[in-house]
Amino acid sequence: MCESSAYLVSTGGEEELILEDVVMMRPENGRILLTNILGDKKDLDAEIDHIDLLKHRIVLRKK
After folding, report:
1. 42 with 24: CB under 8 angstroms?
2. Is 6 left (phi over 0), alpha (psi -120 to 50) or beta?
3. Is the model more confident about 9 or about 1?
4. Which of 9, 55, 63 is nearest to 32 (CA)?
5. Do residues 26 and 43 touch, judged by C-beta distance below 8 A?
6. By the 8 A CB rule, do 35 and 41 touch?
7. Hey, where are the domains in the chain?
8. Is 34 left (phi over 0), alpha (psi -120 to 50) or beta?
9. Do residues 16 and 8 lie in contact, with contact meaning Cβ atoms separated by under 8 Å?
10. With contact defined as beta carbons under 8 Å apart, do 33 and 41 qualify?
11. What's the pLDDT tens digit per position in 20-55?
């Protein structure tokens, strides 16, 4: 499967799991909208830190 897990990095550098099995990530009105395989959504005021496709990880950081 090609789903990824999304993490949010705090200012202290700690990663918090935000959403598993993410199948869509879309910028929307300066925010990032994540949707997983079950249709659950997270709307975050964040920006992309990095995406590791081999490890299926999306790492975001707060704005």
Report:
1. no
2. beta
3. 9
4. 63
5. no
6. yes
7. 4-62
8. beta
9. yes
10. yes
11. 999 999 999 999 999 999 999 999 999 999 999 999
